[in-house]
């Protein structure tokens, strides 16, 4: 059985209402996105909160030496 995000679930509150309450109570929203989809400003306008883009790392090729201690990633 599939339930819509707008339909009431077992708790009596729809998932859409729950999401709206969560966003309303936050100071900022972290948005999973990619470099091809620049939607941070659009989402910021829609929800009225600062948007922190999180997502994939740059696809540029790393030209440094390979290490296993993590220092290479810091310099990248």
Brief characterization of the structure:
The protein is an alpha+beta fold and 76 residues long. The chain contains three helices and two strands; from the N terminus they run αβαβα.
What is the element layout, followed by pairings?
Elements: H1 15-24, E1 29-33, H2 40-47, E2 51-55, H3 71-75
What does this structure look like?
- The protein has 76 residues and is an alpha+beta fold.
- The chain has a domain at 28-56.
- Helices cover 30% and strands 13% of the residues.
- The radius of gyration is 19 Å and the shape is elongated.
> Based on helices, strands and strand pairing, what is the structural class?
alpha+beta
Radius of gyration: 19 Å
Summarize the helix and strand pattern as letters. HEHEH
Number of helices, counting only DSSP H or I runs of 4 residues or more? 3
Task: Provide the helix percentage.
Answer: 25-40%
What is the CA-CA span between the terminal residues?
A: 47 Å
Q: What percentage of the residues does DSSP assign to strands (E)? A: 5-15%
Mean pLDDT: 74
Tell the overall outline: elongated
Largest sheet: 2 strands, parallel
Strand order of the largest sheet: 1-2
Question: Could you name the ranges where pLDDT drops below 50 across 5 or more consecutive residues?
Answer: none
Compute the number of strand runs.
2
